[in-house]
Design goal:
With about 325 residues, the protein is α+β, with helices and mostly antiparallel strands. The chain has 11 helices and 9 strands. The structure holds adenosine-5'-triphosphate and L-homoserine.
Length: about 325
């Protein structure tokens, strides 16, 4: 459930006056997502999404995210296009929060990711990387390697309440991953959270890439590692190398990987696994019982981390 902030009819009417998008026809909260409050908005001009930015998004970063989306959409990537108000602003205030309207994208996200989704996903990710290359402003990845130790420090004390011995195991894993982390790979703007619920499909083709609020300037291959974690494990935590091979082939059909990117896939995947493990662990510990939002299981990423830690080479990912 992700409607943290209620929007009254009067406040909405006043807000929509700022835009030139026709008259309101329908408005409802969207239950999915955990980070921001999202509403679907229908006007006489069409369908839109209204987002109110909540806890984790730093308002100072919003112009960068919206600018990136505008840049990518202009290059025909199927991502939401921020709608500008009459005065040209793409961010305004609603119900005490910073808010934006973006275009609505058709399609549905795959509840059960299959092999057939993975090649189009890889292609779309590579297109995103290429299309973003000439977006000049940069954004440091707050949830990249430099952020992992400080994040762990904020939840280490409670890790063992989730699983006995988890704190010490994570401490050792972080040491190993950070020591082996590559710093000389090709970089640019990455999505950094391209999970199945952020990718819409229609008739077997990708129709939407959403949720750019973790995007940052970082290693391209790290973005692939995020996708390998999010798309290529089965419910029993076994790694599906057929999905991984399809994803990597799809990616390389658009942007071939450098040798160093291929060779470092095991550690990049460990890093991506620990990143989601840590944010989930933090949320697990800090979300009060009875909160409306569903907490995500940190241990699902502990299982993934263990797989990647025993991977020896790119061959373990189907290359
Ligand atoms: N541009 C869009 N077009 C169509 N639907 C959208 C769009 N943006 C968001 N949605 C809908 O809103 C839901 C939540 O959006 P989103 O994933 O961005 O929320 P969030 O709280 O920021 O997410 P997350 O928890 O994944 O970080 C999506 O699953 C989708 O149903
Ligand atoms: N994709 C993240 C949640 C929000 O970005 C996760 O599954 O932990």
């Amino acid at each position: 459930m992700a409607v943290y902030t209620e929007v009254t009819d009067d406040a909405l009417a006043e807000f929509l006056e700022l835009y030139e998008i026709g008259r309101l026809v329908a408005f409802r909260g969207i239950a999915e997502g955990v980070e921001n409050s999202n509403f679907s908005l229908r006007t006489t001009d069409g369908d839109f999404i209204l987002t109110l930015y909540e806890k984790r998004v730093d308002p100072a970063d919003l112009p960068w995210f919206l600018g990136l989306m505008e840049h990518l959409a202009a290059k025909s990537l199927p991502c939401p296009l921020p709608v500008r108000a009459r005065d040209g602003a793409n961010l305004n205030k609603l119900a005490g929060k910073i808010a934006a309207i973006t275009t609505f994208l058709p399609g549905i996200w795959p509840r059960r990711p299959a092999v057939a989704h993975c090649a189009p996903l890889g292609e779309a990710l590579a297109r995103l990387h290429l299309a973003g290359a000439d977006y000049a402003p940069t954004r440091a990845n707050a949830l990249g390697p430099e952020g992992w130790r400080p994040l762990f420090a904020r939840c280490a004390g409670s890790a063992d309440t989730v699983q006995a011995g988890l704190g010490a195991a994570l401490d050792a894993s972080l040491d190993a991953i950070l020591a082996a982390w590559p710093d000389n790979l090709p970089r640019g703007h990455i999505h950094a959270d391209l999970f199945p619920d952020n990718v819409f499909f229609l008739d077997g083709k990708i129709s939407g890439l959403i949720d750019f609020y973790f995007a940052a300037t970082d290693l391209y291959a790290y973005d692939i590692a995020v996708c390998l974690n999010a798309w290529c494990f089965e419910n029993d935590f076994s790694f599906n190398i057929t999905k991984s091979r399809a994803l990597l082939r799809g990616y390389q059909s658009v942007r071939p990987l450098a040798e160093a990117e291929r060779a470092t896939l095991p550690v990049l995947c460990q890093g991506a696994a620990i990143r989601f493990l840590l944010t989930r662990l933090y949320d697990w510990i800090n979300t009060p019982d009875g909160a409306l939002v569903t907490r995500k299981d940190p241990l699902a990423y502990w299982r993934r981390l263990r797989f990647h830690a025993q991977a020896r080479s790119e061959g373990d990912y189907g290359l």
